Amino acid sequence: MFGRHFSYSSAKDWPQIKSWLQRRMQPDSSLEDNVRDILNRVSNSGDQALLEYTRLFDCDSFQVQDLRVAPEEIEQSLFSVPEGDLNIIREAADKIRTFHAAQTRTSWFIPDSDGAFLGQMVTPVSRAGLYVPGGRGGDTPLISSLLMNAIPARTAGVESICVVSPPRRDKTLNPYILATCGILGLNEVYRCGSAWAIAALAYGTETIPRADIIAGPGNIYVATAKKLLTGQVGIDMIAGPSELAILADKAVKPEYLAADLLSQAEHDALSGTYLIASEQELIQATEEELNRQSSELPRHETASRALKDWGGAFLVPDLHTGLDLINLIAPEHLELCIADPWTMLAGIRNAGAVFLGNTSPEPVGDYFAGPNHVLPTMSTARFSQALSVQTFQKNISILATDRNYLRKHASKIARLARMENLEAHARSVEIRLQGD
Question: Is the pTM of this model over 0.90?
Answer without folding.
Answer: yes
